[in-house]
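Friendly challenge for the regulars: who can give me the structure tokens for this chain first? No prize, just bragging rights.
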Amino acid sequence: MSNASSNQADKKVIAGVCGILLGALGVHKFILGYTTEGIIMLVASLLSCGLLSPIMGILGLVEGIIYLTKADDEFVSTYVTNKKGWL
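First reply, four minutes later:
Bragging rights claimed.
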């Protein structure tokens, strides 16, 4: 794996943990550079006065687990190179 790919794969752990812990706020999306998706999650959680937070939290939890269980090369290919924004 090249140095650039290694640096991108390092985001996997950070994004995965943030997805699990702060998924309702979309922090993991911002870490991966998915600004639009992050804003959607943040706005949905905040503007619904927290009513949609559990749904966004579950989505973040699932995405965090997916990020952490993928191999580094597969993570970089899927989420960095091909920019798959949702699950």
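The radius of gyration is 13 Å. The chain has a mean pLDDT of 91. Your move, everyone else.
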